[in-house]
Amino acid sequence: MSNGNNSLTIDPRLLEQLKGIELKSRFLVRGFYENRHRTRDFGASNEFIEHKDYQRGDEIRRIDWRVFARTRRLYVKRFEMEANMRVHFILDTSDSMRVPAEGGRPTKLELAATITGALAMMAVSQQDSAGLFCIGDMIDEAIPARQGMRHLALLFQHLGVPRGQGGGKFGEIAWTTLQQIGRRGVTFVLTDALDPLDPLIETLKGLMVREQDVTLIQVLDEAELTFPFDKMTEFRHPETGRRIMGDPQALRDRYLARITAHVEKVRLFCIQHGVDYLRLHTGDDLAALLSSHFVQRLVRRNSAC
């Protein structure tokens, strides 16, 4: 949510709940920044891993002469380097995310922006890089992943009033971010996932192929899940403008069956393909739900190491 300066503000209770939780990738990451993330790159610094046979082109200074004295064979030492992790956020800023919620609750976009800001703060606080893509009808914002509190302040400014409008092609447009995101890191995709699913699924698969540790956070309005309407209502599509006047009593069962099936398809895809999945709505206790999810995520990452 934004303050008077159009910069994102986050409930301190949420930050307190997330305090001490580490963002950790299930994959080894690549880089040259000294940090606590292990990488597949091997160099001449940090923790000793193993010996390997000397081959032409290996650096002579890495030869272990003590082993040579014992075995009369040339071996070089390999060391595991550590790396700065890049964390990217792909944020759906389309019109469907901006629909006002009932009872003064935040919109889906405000909720998603708050989550993005909190996770970006987690990343920057552990000396990692955070980058942001805002997607409406196109990539409306593309902020490269960088470190530091000044960069975090820049992200908060853009999350306070996220750019974007229109929509309907989130998955297709998100696909075009893959080259900029690159390989090996952590990516969070925040959307209501109400557009056609196939393009979104292909984007998630594309991220996984690039060894991104992917989390899909599906943010919905509580009314989209409960359909609380009880009298003749005009329903308007926020992106196409199409309007339908209908009796909720006649529509409820069919609507709830379709939204349940749609959400279940998203969830099952994530389970089957190793994408972390979190679904929440505008009436949820964000601090409790988010902290619980990331505690469980950290347990899974630690057990995988």
Task: Describe the overall structure.
The chain is of the alpha/beta class. The protein folds into 2 domains: 12-27 and 85-304, 3-Layer(aba) Sandwich (Rossmann fold), CATH 3.40.50; 37-83, no CATH class. 38% of the residues lie in helices and 25% in strands. The protein has helices at 12-18, 65-71, 108-125, 149-160, 170-175, 178-181, 197-209, 222-226, 248-273, 286-304; strands spanning 37-43, 47-53, 75-83, 86-92, 129-135, 139-146, 185-191, 212-220, 233-236, 243-246, 276-281. The strands form 3 sheets. A 6-stranded mixed beta sheet has the order 6-5-4-7-8-11, sandwiched between helices. Strands 1-3-2 form a 3-stranded antiparallel beta sheet. It is elongated, with a radius of gyration of 23 Å. It starts with 11 loop residues before the first helix and ends with a helix. The model is unreliable at 29-35 (pLDDT under 50).
Q: For the report, how would you describe the main beta sheet?
A: 6 strands, mixed
Distance between the amino and carboxyl termini:
36 Å
Count of β-strands: 11
Order of helices and strands: HEEHEEHEEHHHEHEHEEHEH
**Architecture per CATH nomenclature, i.e. the level-2 architecture of the largest domain:** 3-Layer(aba) Sandwich
**Helix fraction bin:** 25-40%
Which characteristics define this entry?
alpha/beta, 6-stranded mixed beta sheet, 3-stranded antiparallel beta sheet, elongated, 305 residues
